[in-house]
Automatic annotation (TrEMBL):
SUPFAM superfamilies: NAD(P)-binding Rossmann-fold domains. It comes from Geodermatophilus amargosae. This is NAD(P)-dependent dehydrogenase, short-chain alcohol dehydrogenase family. NCBIfam families: PRK08303.1. It comes from the Bacteria.
Length: 293
């Protein structure tokens, strides 16, 4: 039997910008499992790949949303193009007349990130492009879609990030854009609060994304074997864990109290009593603290 408890987002409308893979895909699916209609957007479609050149597509994510119990809608959108995002906003407005949840997870920065390269040797053109791809796209998307929330004085904007901003992320370009996303959530929260809309950021821990599974040479079924290469992998989480955390936030009637902050999947997991798809409750923060002691 369908109840508010097991489908708390039934009737709600969400957009997951950059929902092709990773945390975006996991979030889209879990919003669907909670009952939402989810527009899954991005550049990787069955008609062509983005510069990431990976096989995952927005259509596949949308199908998983529907299979989970929601309604998935795949729309090809280049979030760096204002006209594309405007068309997305028009489509959501035409279909539903409102938007309840916006998740900004546009990335595409893997080909632009130079790991193990000191900042004085970075290709600044790549850093500039990374800024446009991973930060400006988020702002542009919010500019077009948040007005669908303002009219109703309610809604949630989630910036998916990497890290709380306290630790260096290993490459100046990468660190710069991920820290900026955290600040973007804070700044939007300041301006949206008086209008009844909440903005915040959420970071996963060690994410077992499709790409990370490939790097470690494992599958989700054999992921524990990855700990032989890196012991930290034993504390990793699937994209569904952060997705469940975001779905719980979207269903929280007291969400406004969390505005402007960077929330972690592991703390939210404990607060909301969540588990990952394998039944575990990973806690990256506790793992790292124990490793450092």
């Amino acid at each position: 039997m369908e109840t508010k408890q097991n489908r708390p987002l039934a009737g709600q409308v969400a957009v997951v910008a950059g929902g092709t893979r990773g945390a975006g895909r996991g979030t889209a699916v879990e919003l669907g499992a909670a009952g939402a209609t989810v527009y899954v957007t991005g550049r990787s479609t069955r008609h062509g790949r983005s510069a990431m050149n990976r096989p995952e597509t927005i259509e596949e994510t949308a199908e998983r949303v529907t299979a989970a119990g929601g309604e998935g809608v795949a729309l090809g959108v280049d979030h760096s193009r204002s006209e594309d995002v405007a068309a997305l906003a028009d489509r959501v407005l035409r279909d539903h007349g409102r938007l309840d949840v916006l998740v900004n997870d546009v990335w595409g920065g893997d080909p632009l990130t130079e790991w193990d390269t000191p900042f004085w040797r970075l290709d600044v053109a790549k850093v500039q492009q990374l800024w446009q791809q991973a930060v400006v796209t988020h702002l542009l998307t919010s500019q077009h879609l948040v007005p669908l929330m303002l009219a109703r004085h309610r809604g949630l904007v989630v910036e998916i990030t990497d890290g709380t901003g306290e630790d260096y992320r290993g490459s100046l370009g990468y660190d710069l854009v991920k820290t900026a996303v955290n600040r973007l959530a804070f700044a939007m929260a300041e301006e949206l609060g008086p209008h009844g809309v909440t903005a915040l950021a959420v970071t996963p821990g060690f994410l077992r994304s499709e790409a990370m599974l490939e790097i470690f040479g494992v599958t989700e079924a054999t992921w524990r074997d990855g700990a032989r290469r890196d012991p930290h992998f034993a504390a990793s989480e699937t994209p569904h864990f952060v997705g469940r955390a975001i779905a719980a936030l979207a269903a929280d009637p007291d969400i406004a109290a969390r505005a402007g902050l960077v929330h972690t999947s592991w703390d939210l997991g404990e607060e909301y009593g969540l588990t990952d798809i394998d039944g575990r409750r990973p806690h990256w923060g506790r793992h790292i603290a124990a490793s450092a002691s």
